[in-house]
Amino acid sequence: QVQLVESGGGLVQPGGSLRLSCAASGFTLRGYAMSWYRQAPGKERQLVARINIGGGSSDYADSVKGRFTISRDNAKNTVYLQMDSLKPEDTAMYYCNARNWAYEYGGQGTQVTVSS
Q1: Distance CA 18, CA 68 (A)
Q2: Sign of CA pseudo-dihedral 10, 14, 19, 21
Q3: Which end of the chain is more exposed for a tag (fewer CB within 10 A), N or C?
């Protein structure tokens, strides 16, 4: 069964950090570009960060540049999103996505809440 499972979300105070994980099963992430999206209540889904197949190139939404870092560990079949200096406006459900020329998979999401 093909799955992407996100984890690592939770409640954190402003200025804090979280590390999200996205673990794949049923397929290997090695051949996929990976992305993290987020969606807050009443707002459109937003691309937060993406990393290419080789892991040598990544880019970020302007709102998270310098605070978030996407990385991948193909040996562990997992992608990460390190989130530092979190702000209340980062509160959202975070989803990972795997895509190549033939297939696309998404996860169920993990909730991140930034609040004092």
Answers
A1: 10
A2: positive
A3: N
